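Two records follow; treat each independently.
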Amino acid sequence: MAKSNPRKNDPRRDQPTDEAHQDEFVFGRHAVEEALREGSNKTINKLFVQKDLNSDPVRVIVDKAKKQKILVSQVPKVKLDLLTDGGNHQGVMVAMAPYAYVTIDDLFDHASGHDPFFVILDNLEDPQNLGSILRTADAVGVDGIIIPKHRAVGLTSTVAKVSTGAIEHVPVARVTNLAQTIKTLKERGLWIFGTAMDGQDFRQWNAKGKVALVIGNEGKGISPGLAKLMDATLTIPMVGHVQSLNASVAAGILMYQGFTSRGGK
């Protein structure tokens, strides 16, 4: 079943928020192509292209922008380096309205017609991790990501770059209180799974039904208050000397197990 995209053509993307009043810069060919595919002249304000760069991929991007009546600005490489803080921009960057967050109800609408599969991130701080998780979430059909409003990374240009366009397809809800949100999800029939050293081997996890997977902070794991709310916990067995995994790697392993146990659909 095709999923609706609550972020696409969402008028809320054009409205200023308390968190951001300035444009976000999205750079790199894949990320820019995806932004142009999902965006419109209302959300993308300008395309910056490196001067004297005339490769086929860049020409395709410029043609798409012109068809959407987006202003194209030829700039020297040094300006792109400055605007992207030395990022790997590959000669292209767009200035666009900040990414909008959706509501919990929007996430359920996104999962209309099937049991929802959500991922909850407990105070994740690294934008690289959030971008990678979004990319994997899109690959396995996760219906939405839930993040806290405070003390955690949000949707930024770095996240967009790392997600290689997945940020346009996976809706993200940002909530004030994760514990209360989890209680609300339980009231709506979801089973909440977290990670713990003494949890069930993730390879036996059956993620069928209405489920949410909680991924903890990079250094501290799931906070004690949230840990008490888990219906069950999972662990990833390891035989090496380093008994921990990067948050995005662990999330990817668990999301793919969820995807597999749900029938790969």
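The next record belongs to a different protein.
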Amino acid sequence: MDAKLLEILVCPICKGPLFHDKARQELICRGDRVAYPIKDGIPVMLEGEARELPADEEVGQ
């Protein structure tokens, strides 16, 4: 994931910052506890494609 692209992308729900989880290939919004998938290097920033993070799942730094 390009660092410059990550700097300008925000959560479409709350407009907050996103964390790039390289291992899972997801962009995570800590505030809303949702993860947006990255498919073939392209972030899919659609609410319907996001997965909700369970309360017990750790969100990376």
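Discussion point: The CA atoms of residues 18 and 29 lie 5 Å apart. How would you locate this feature using only the token line?
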